[in-house]
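Why predict the complex rather than its parts? Because the way molecules touch one another can change local conformation, and only a joint prediction can capture that. The input here totals 865 residues.
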Amino acid sequence: MHLAPGRYIYTDVERALLRRLATRLQSICGEEHVLEHEHDLFTYASDGLLQYSVVPPLAVLPGDGAEVSAVVHACHELGVPWVARGSGSGLSGGALPVEHGLLIVLSRMRRILEVDLDNQRVVVEPGVTNVAVSHAVGPDYFYPPDPSSQIVCSIGGNVSENSGGAHCFKYGFTTNYVTGLEVVLADGEVVQLGGKALEPPGYDLLGAFVGSEGTLGIATRITLRVIPSPEAVRCLVAFFDSVEPAGDAVSAIVAAGTVPGAIEMMDGLSIGASEQMAHAGWPVEAGAALIVELDGPAAELEARFDEIEALCRQSGATELRVARDETERTLFWKMRKSAFPAAGRISPHYFVQDGVVPRTRLTGVLGRIQSLSDEYGLKVANVFHAGDGNLHPLVCYDGHIPGEAERAEELSGRILEACLEAGGSLTGEHGVGVDKKRYMPRMFSEPDLSAFQKLRCAFDPDGLANPGKVMPTPRLCGEVPGPYRVHPLEAAGLAERF
Amino acid sequence: MQRPASAQEVAELLAEGRVTRPVGGRTKLDWGSPGSPAELELSTERLDAVVEHNAGDLTAVLQAGARLADAQAVFARAGQRLALDPPDLGARATIGGVVATSDSGPLRHHYGGVRELVIGVQVALADGTVARAGSRVIKNVAGYDLAKLMCGSFGTLGVICEVIVRLHPQPVDPVTVLAHGADPRELTRAAGTLRRLPLELEALDVRWDRRQGALLAQVAGRAARANAQAIAGQLGDLEVEIVAEDHTLWEDQRARQRAAADEQAVARVSFAPAELERVLRASPSAVARAGAGMAWVSLEPSPEALAALRTAVSPWPCVLLDGPEALRSTVDVWGLAEGPELALMRRVKARFDPGGICNRGRFAGGM
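Output of the joint prediction:
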């Protein structure tokens, strides 16, 4: 499906405004880093969600935090909205440009500013790739959040989306590893949230910023916590006739008190597709594959690994393969990580969903997805983070067949509904962006959305930061209601009001 | 005193616009700035249910007034726990109070703080609405993470009515390596060695008391004994023992996070972990989370003693947590300087609580 609207027609006033902004940006960042011509801007029309596309009228590539601040300040003065973009690998359209605004591309800001292993901290600019952080601290330490796109995706984007990955069941998400941020607010002001120390006094604005999808400001300097690399890693894949017994195995493993580094499931359709691409020699007739990876202290691992093998067999595994070496382990993961690109081999187009269900409801929801798939006559391949119930159904369709894209989109929506009915979430790691904002009212009530808006207005009262994302409908902030203003004496903690 | 029985009733009381002080187990009422006298005291004692314990999903839904100890007893029956162990001597602390103050204990080392364990929140706001954020699933990025905003906000943005938490399996065979030492540098070096080991310690603490100190490392699991031996072997010159019955050791660490009497105050310092030595040298007596970089320092309850501590640990933040009201009403409890960060916090406060009725004056910057 292609949702790109017709070419946006700019008014003379808008053109003049953007021209004035362009001139200011050239003096801030240098002419070579300001893009105004359509052939330069076309690259930035979409992020990883290709169904949406908007060619921005203007883009800038600032070189450091001070330039970002000056750029955002200029936008604020002229009242021009903006969208920040890292590597553009996001899957919810969070970095989709706006027609009447500026695109701020952070890919020049890719310096690792400090590696402080004594304190287990790394300080980076937002354009640094996820994998570069682990490379900078390895092999003794690593940075746990590992989205599948980690070779290209940027830390700034990870902070915006609170990215997860296969290993977050055990290790947690981006938000658990960010200890400090330098943030440029929507008026160009710079604030320091946190630093190398944990839990500084005051509201946890750091926690509120991570995962805010570029709507609260731009992180220009990011302090991350890294942890010692596990002493040992062991990985197995178990094959099952269908997803139900594989789901039972997941429950049994978790109930036994084991916390694997990762538990990933692929259904028969995805095994078949990935096999065409990764050639791991997996049985394509299997109904499900479960990849279980254990990491940690070597002695602990030996004891636990045998238990997991036994639990997989008891749950009905038809075949079990243990990775004999690092090469084979990499091959297992290649099968898993090929699932998205390989879907292109079984279908011309597909939608990826990112719904989450409580783990105990996995089997029921997977059954529901299968019956929806039958009802719509569209194939749905499933690959997912089984440990935390984060599904990635790939809804396959052929965009050349009239009406099929629309039906696929409707089917995607019904899958999300099934996740919500099971007590889950719209999105586990891809974010709301433009893609899922229309579903927000199904997960959140009006007072919930209004509370979100309170936070957004505190950071960006003019609504200039990434407008049109996350919230289902545009909202204005207005003035702060009520008579209360903090008296300077009270602010200093010296007086009380009665 | 009002005892609402639902979040909706809490919201209705807030809508009346009176300056409101939420109270739970009354264990930390004397934390923070003294603030303005409340026109309304709002007790969560009737909001005390463990609403759900989803053992298979390792999550639970708790009303704010549920006592932490009671909830832990429920989780324990399934071999699980909420990995949050703040000092709780009388077993009266409620989950709402623990979340509002972001209190934690030794398990913070491996499991993180309240902010890492709370995955959803329901909060009654000053405008009379009840808002939720987060969800029942651990992995969720839909909407802003308002749960984190509420953690440690001392009830100044609204009244927490319900929280959703993630649980963990109970550890198998925990055992503690206890190493004695009287030199802050040596203790810091030993803690640094253990921080670098890939042994997944449950907890890593330091105790410091009038020039005598100890390092405590707890390890658990099928191979706990072997790993404890490995840890002991790394500690070189320190006098080391391995303690299997380690409950009282850790109970003592937790107790040290509180002022023992009115003749004492406790300040919490957050620091980069390698700075432990400097924090210990500045402290007459302290308990520190050596991996997380947090220390609870016991000091004489005087403005001078607090000022001296702040100077000695500068630039690391230092909050006066627990101490006599006479002290808390004369010093800057929070130590948060004026600047763009505090200004942004005030804008957040003004959006959530424009009338300043939620626990007025208890928080940083007079909020």
